Amino acid sequence: MTMMVVMKIVDAAFDLFLGGQCHGCGEPGRSPCPSCQLALRPQPEAQLRAALDVPLVSCLEYDLAMPFVVAFKDRGAWQLTGTIGTVLAASVRCLIDNLDAGHPVLVPVPSSPAAVRQRGFDHMATLANWTAKQLGLRWSPLLSRVGRVSDQVGQGASQRVSNQTGSMRARPGAETVVVVDDIVTTGATVVEAVRALKAGGHRVIGVATVADTALGR
């Protein structure tokens, strides 16, 4: 029995005996509820971001995706791995197909060691692993955090860029990679990830995320 099957059984037991609700709308029962599951249907869309010199593809809007991403990474909602992973996989597939990129390596944006300890797991490594298996690709933790970054909630675009610059380092190599992340806001984090990978000798063909924030918001 795989770990994912075990987690699904545990989730179902908790929902049955303790009750559960949709993380999006609060509807009692499993999360996501049928209505939110339909709304979470991937709709890949490519876009451009300032200072990002590679394509970026995301599938959902910030407001729709955020409650589920937060529940997954900060509240232990493991049952959402497949829901969020399916969306991320659609972004990766769209990017690869549009670029005819073959079989790139998926590289997750790293969380800080403190965040990983607090959550008990690395949420982007988990999603990268799930997505890679679905698409028949490899993933690799080529990136690591080498500098402290402050909480970016409430920071403007220029503050976020300054906060992220120089905060990541890539293991040296020559892989063809796609950077994967959960939600892109100003783009400062993925810009730093791309910079670090290129500095390490890798070829970055694009960025794939679950959701994005409207420019200028």
Quick tags:
217 residues, alpha/beta, Rossmann fold, two-stranded antiparallel sheet, 9 strands
Task: Walk me through what this model shows.
This protein folds into two domains: 39 residues, no CATH class; 171 residues, 3-Layer(aba) Sandwich (Rossmann fold). The chain contains eight helices and nine strands. The protein is of the alpha/beta class and 217 residues long. It is globular, with a radius of gyration of 17 Å. The strands form two sheets. Strands 1, 2, 3, 4, 5, 8 and 9 form a seven-stranded mixed sheet that branches. The protein has a two-stranded antiparallel ribbon with strand order 6-7. The model has no long low-confidence stretch (mean pLDDT 86).
Brief synopsis:
This protein has about 220 residues and is α/β, with parallel strands linked by helices. The protein has helices at about 5-20, 35-40, 60-75, 80-100, 115-120, 125-135, 155-165, 190-200; strands spanning about 45, 55-60, 60, 105-110, 140, 145, 170, 175-185, 205-210. The protein contains eight helices and nine strands.
Oligomer: single chain
What is the share of helical residues?
40-55%
Examine the coordinates and then state which fold CATH places here, giving the name of the CATH topology of the largest domain: Rossmann fold
The ordered H/E elements are HHEEEHHEHHEEHEEHE
CATH class category label of the largest domain = Alpha Beta
Beta-strand percent range: 15-25%
Q: Major beta sheet, specifics?
A: 7 strands, mixed
How many beta-strand segments?
Answer: 9
Instruction: Label the structural class.
Output: alpha/beta
Number of helices: 8
- Please compute the radius of gyration using only Cα atoms: 17 Å
